[in-house]
Amino acid sequence: MPADGGTLDPEALRDRLAQELPAHLVPSRFLVLDALPMTASGKIDLARLPEDARPVSARPYRAPRTAVENILVRAWAAALGREQVGIDDSFTELGGHSLTVMQVITKLRAEHGYKLTFQDFYRHRTVAELAAVVTDAKTARAGEDTGGPDGPGGARARAADSIVWLRRSGSRPPLFCVHPGSAHWFAELADHLDPDQPVAAFEWPGLSRPCPAPESVEQVAELNLAELRRIAPSGPYHLLGWCGGSQITTEMARRLHAAGEEVTFLLLDPALDTYERENMHEFVRRFERAEAAFADLADAARSGARPERVDELRQRAGDLLNDILDDGEVAPPEPGDDFWPGRIRVWRELLQTRLAYRHTPYEGRLHLLAGDDVAAGEHEVAEGVSFEDFTARWRELASGGLTVHRVGGNHLGVLKTPHVAEVAAVLTGLLSGARQ
């Protein structure tokens, strides 16, 4: 932001950014605005940005060729506030983020019955690729398996469902990222890491299709390790856990290290002794209240309740949902919505699994990246714990040594612009120093 009375020198700004960022992340152009338009939840409102300020596709425009592509193009354009979207455009390159993905998913489910998932959006990033997923799903449903050892459709969690590639290209050993739920949190981080660094993230299969609740952190870790071993049968391994993913990552690192593998073990704002945190138990109760509200909404719609009553229950379900969501707000759900109830149930099940976990020492070295909330003792997964006590506890758990790296940003901000660039720079340095 230029000082009062100052002017912007694009070349000087570009030169300065080139000193801080990888070449592929330095902007090609700049636009001065009096102020950034914001949403009610404090996020930049892309739809209200001037056209020249919105992310521009570098791909030649291709118009939709099929009815499915046309539906997807219109949904993307509405969510991103754009007049035109081509079938080769990438959702993330056009400025899409986790909340807009949620909005598009729920819109397509409600209006067209397309049951896309977060995994679909990050595995298939263009309209053309997503349209193929929709078409394939329709074909698969026509001959859907209704039996088998796992019940209807085969409802067992499978290792092959647990990985989402955020970047496949690169010659280095992949960085495997772990969050207890969705892989989408690491998308911006992947974009800021060295282009030669492959990045994959684990996602619990229950977020994409019906499967039994996780039995334990150990089971989730074992599932992840089965997929990791399939991709990379031997080390070195690079593991990054964030937030509640720290327990799963710790268990994965502990097992790999015990097997004699070389592990670069990285935790970003990790949860600490979750079972001791009363606010984590309160999160379970929040999930349960939201589940009950969605059930009440579905029951009211099925029983033909008065429209006023249905609207009242829609608003309550929406309020409880937005009380849970970390990264934005969504409109009140429609009766019969099965997207949000399923996700809320899975989030609760995963948190209950983590509440049952007890850390055991990791005998290797741990690199701990700590953001501003941790340093201030305000991090929601270690609420009320001083930074000194926080690092002392991790030093106790990492018997092979602890290195602490301070980074800027709050709990969510560490993985979002602008702070994610600093986190990526720290990780790039650590991974470059590891044996490749």
Question: Layout of helices and strands, plus pairs?
Answer:
Blueprint: H1 10-20, H2 67-80, H3 98-112, H4 118-123, H5 127-142, E1 163-167, E2 175-178, H6 187-192, E3 199-202, H7 217-231, E4 237-243, H8 245-258, E5 263-270, H9 278-302, H10 307-324, H11 339-355, E6 366-370, H12 372-375, H13 387-397, E7 402-406, H14 419-433
Parallel strand pairs: 2-3, 2-4, 4-5, 5-6, 6-7
Antiparallel strand pairs: 1-3
Helix pairs in contact: 2-3, 2-5, 7-8, 9-10, 9-11
Task: Provide tags for this entry.
436 residues, alpha/beta, Non-ribosomal Peptide Synthetase Peptidyl Carrier Protein, Chain A, Rossmann fold, 3 domains, 14 helices, 7 strands, phosphopantetheine, phosphoprotein, phosphopantetheine binding, PP-bd_ACP, Carrier domain-containing protein
Describe it.
This protein has 436 residues and is of the alpha/beta class. The chain has 3 domains: 21-139, Non-ribosomal Peptide Synthetase Peptidyl Carrier Protein, Chain A; 159-273 and 359-433, Alpha/Beta hydrolase fold, catalytic domain (Rossmann fold); 278-355. It has 14 helices and 7 strands. The longest helix is centred in the middle third of the chain and has 25 residues, at 278-302. The two termini are 40 Å apart.
